[in-house]
């Protein structure tokens, strides 16, 4: 598969017996090489790093403004889809998602996987999600 990232979170499906499911996505990492994925240098850098402070996690003013703008655009898209009379605003440049960090001529390739009924709110659940993704859905062997 090459260098990639795995992201997953819960999705709620009210029409299912299992209302809460875990939805995973695998995506390629731009310009990543296998050398960058080695655990020992990552652990070495982790040991050298200082603990995170709350200020390290707090979004900047520009990030908060961007999030608010993107949220307003996404909510507007729902309005355009389900409420008649707003069609004339659909292509307004102010109601389009804005690119923050564009990488010219690149679009990340995402590969969504099947949702599973694994509860991932615990350490064991997280490990089970990884097993489900790699061993079951992607049919990898533990040595891959």
Structural class determined from secondary elements: alpha+beta
Cα radius of gyration in angstroms = 20 Å
Main sheet: which strands, in order across? Answer: 1-2-3
Range of strand content: 5-15%
Helix content: 25-40%
Number of helices, where a helix is a run of at least 4 consecutive DSSP H or I residues: 4
For the largest beta-sheet, the strand count, sense and barrel status come to: 3 strands, antiparallel
Instruction: Give the beta-strand count.
Output: 3
- Euclidean distance between termini CA atoms: 9 Å
Defining key terms:
extended; alpha+beta; three-stranded antiparallel β-sheet; single chain; 144 residues
Question: What is the structure about, briefly put?
Answer:
With 144 residues, the protein is α+β, with helices and mostly antiparallel strands. It has four helices and three strands. The chain has helices at 39-48, 54-57, 61-82, 123-137, and strands at residues 4-12, 20-28, 110-112.
Describe the structure.
There is one protein chain. With 144 residues, this protein is of the alpha+beta class. It is 35% helix and 15% strand. A hairpin with a 7-residue loop joins strand 1 and strand 2.
Question: Would you spell out the secondary-structure blueprint of this structure?
Answer:
Blueprint: E1 4-12, E2 20-28, H1 39-48, H2 54-57, H3 61-82, E3 110-112, H4 123-137
Antiparallel strand pairs: 1-2, 2-3
């Amino acid at each position: 598969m090459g260098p990639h990232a795995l992201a997953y979170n819960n999705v709620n499906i009210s029409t299912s017996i299992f209302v809460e499911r875990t939805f995973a996505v695998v995506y390629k990492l731009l310009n990543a090489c296998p050398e960058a994925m080695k655990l020992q240098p990552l652990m070495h850098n982790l040991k050298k790093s200082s603990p995170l402070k709350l200020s390290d996690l707090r979004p900047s003013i520009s990030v908060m403004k961007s999030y608010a703008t993107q949220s307003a655009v996404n909510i507007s898209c729902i309005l355009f889809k389900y409420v008649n009379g707003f069609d004339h605003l659909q292509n307004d440049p102010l109601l389009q998602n804005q690119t923050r960090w564009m990488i010219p001529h690149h679009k990340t390739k995402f590969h969504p996987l099947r949702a599973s009924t694994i509860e991932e709110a615990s350490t064991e659940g997280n490990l089970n999600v990884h097993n489900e993704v790699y061993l079951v859905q992607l049919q990898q062997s533990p040595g891959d």
